[in-house]
Write a structure and sequence with these properties.
2 copies of one chain form a homodimer. Chain A has 2 domains: about 130 residues, Creatinase/prolidase N-terminal domain (Creatine Amidinohydrolase, Chain A, domain 1, 3-Layer(aba) Sandwich), CATH 3.40.350.10; about 220 residues, Creatine Amidinohydrolase. Chain A is about 30% helix and about 20% strand. Chain A contains 10 helices and 18 strands. In chain A, helix 3 runs parallel beside helix 4 and helix 9 runs antiparallel to helix 10. The longest helix of chain A has 20 residues. The interface between A and B is large, with 69 and 69 residues.
């Protein structure tokens, strides 16, 4: 903050409030009430929150918690915010907030305009880099939580032969997977997408249909399960009864691309270099230009976080960064395949948090 | 739109995009990519979305889907948006977007500023009332989905005696409930909060601790389970082994407050009148001033939606509105209780979507 000449951080989003306070609740599902946190250059964070959150916030390490009765149609916390920011910063102060890539402001825009007007002697500046810089490098306690949920999902995927069968409607397969994840200790499975299609699939973000899984399909599930507020994010592919040569070849190329990613993922390398290492294998394997736009990303408190493994992301890898390696490949005929692992950057080779996918496309239901 | 002199709606949030297109994906969990939809006064919506979403959006009723390769660090869709809006509206047009209560703009604020600059001949105005007016009144198909998930949650709560036991850690009880909900046909249980405490509880938005459930506790679970993108939102209270006179009395008052709400919930009544009908019973029962700020709200594509049952909300109830009745009561000593049902406003008495809570506080584990 000193380097960027930011006097106070003004935060509105769930991961940021949780990062600085430990405040964890699914109540964010309700869009009704805004929640605010202020981080001064020195001293503890100050929470400015709806009264309903007081008992939970009071259990965190914060001392200064200011509340109002929300929702309020006339002033839903803006007056209290202006008063608090004016108390914490001098006139002319620079207030950092998240305005950049992969962020949004979780409050009505009308109220943010009121806030800016009420604090016109202060300047709102972009603090995305401060926050992303902090959050990209995980503490060992954060890594433990991510490793734990990666273990739960890996364990669940290892039961694929029991969970998934030919003839089973795809939505039933997804339901069985979710139930097994919860049974294995996941707190939640907020993200589970995937597909099943002959020799591959054409999209990777769909909810499941109720079409039955067929022999010859490649079934893919991509899961973001959660433990104590931390995500895993990886997928697995399974051939049902039989695997075509084409799907074996796609799988093989993606497995090798991930190997290339694992070899390139070293402290000091850039995300662009990591991308290139994987893309080289994909191109050699005959992959058409991908539409996913990147071959992996950060993860942690969110399913996807900075950085992005793309040609343009020059973020330098550092120890403690938790990342996905996510090569994907299309043959240009509407059939694609994705492959994903979760890793943490260490001094030397990265540590796999997900149990490495099998060397060959697993065939189940035989 | 004609009445409000809005020429085009500019939408960025999940429920709005889904409302107009049917586009349903958990991919919104990833904050990386923004998604946009434009609604002209006449004709079909136009989607401006990341390429990765094309296969799913192409299955909706939309014809005009424009994509860019996202994430893009230089121009993450803003250029395409400016071009498309300029094509769809004349100079001087009024672009409606959601700036009001219970909304936010799901795109980086920096990019919204670029959009406004790129379209400076057009004016961005608040369209919250247009959207909330549409979304508050549900179609019969929407009501069916909400009724279905309310039925699943009601059925799961009816098994409380099997799911919850004295000595069980609270997080295990929550996990058992989630698994049972999924087993009963829920697609997901994104919201499950609650508490267990002697004679009542002190907060209603917490994730569960791993403390064991004790005899004499009141156990409360409040769930937002989902079916095909539609939520239920209601809670149930259970006394473990034995119920104190105080907790029976709290429960009785809240049950009667809900009855008063059911009697008041008629087309033509206001949310304020509904609030007053319930609050009168709570005050008579000795309730201290509540901190929840309201006694129910709308629900549907989101866990909570407009309107709010508060003294200040003059929204007039209309047939087809789906609402929660959610009286809560504190005795001023840190012990509170909540009670909730889901209803749809009909011509005459409302229809209960949740199976009405038992008349007396159920005692389980005896």
């Amino acid at each position: 903050m000193r380097e960027e000449q930011v006097d106070l951080l003004f935060l509105t989003t769930e991961p940021e409030l949780r990062y600085f306070s430990g405040f964890l609740t699914q109540f964010w599902q309700s869009p009704t009430r805004p929640w605010f946190m202020l981080i001064p250059r020195t001293g503890k964070p100050v929470a400015v929150i709806p009264e309903i959150g007081m008992p939970v916030m009071a259990r965190t390490w914060l001392d200064d918690i200011r509340t109002w009765s929300s929702p309020d149609p006339v002033d839903d916390g803006v007056g209290l915010l202006i008063e608090t920011i004016a108390e914490l910063t001098p006139s002319g102060a620079r207030i950092g907030t998240m305005l950049g890539a992969e962020t949004y402001l979780r409050m009505p825009l009308r109220d943010f305009d009121r806030l800016r007007t009420g604090l016109e002697a202060r300047e709102f500046v972009d603090a995305t880099d401060i926050l992303s810089g902090l959050r990209m490098v995980k503490s060992e306690r954060e890594i433990e939580k991510i490793a734990h949920i990666c273990g739960i999902a890996s364990d669940t995927f290892s039961k694929a032969g029991d969970l998934f069968q030919e003839g089973q409607p795809l939505d039933e397969a997804f339901r069985a997977f979710k139930i097994a994840c919860l049974g294995n200790g996941a707190d939640d499975v907020p993200y589970l997408v995937g597909a099943a299609g002959h020799g591959g699939y054409d999209d990777v973000i769909s909810p499941p249909s109720n079409d039955p899984i067929c022999a010859g399909d490649v079934l893919m599930l991509d899961t973001g399960a959660v433990f104590d507020g931390y995500f895993c994010d990886f997928d697995r592919n399974f051939a049902i009864s039989t695997a075509s040569d084409q799907s074996r070849k796609l799988y093989d190329t993606l497995w090798l691309a991930t190997e290339a990613g694992l070899s390139a993922a070293r402290p000091g390398a850039t995300c662009a270099e990591l991308f290139q290492a994987m893309q080289k294998v994909i191109t050699k394997g005959g992959g058409a230009d991908g539409s996913v736009g990147r071959l992996g990303h950060g993860l942690g408190m969110q399913l996807t976080e900075w950085p992005s493994h793309t040609l343009w992301d020059q973020t330098v890898l550092r120890e403690g960064m938790v990342l996905t390696l996510e090569p994907s490949m299309s043959l240009g005929d509407g059939v694609m395949m994705v492959h994903e692992e979760n890793i943490v950057i260490r001094d030397g080779a990265p540590e796999l948090l997900s149990v490495r996918a099998p060397r060959e496309l697993p065939v189940i239901g035989v």
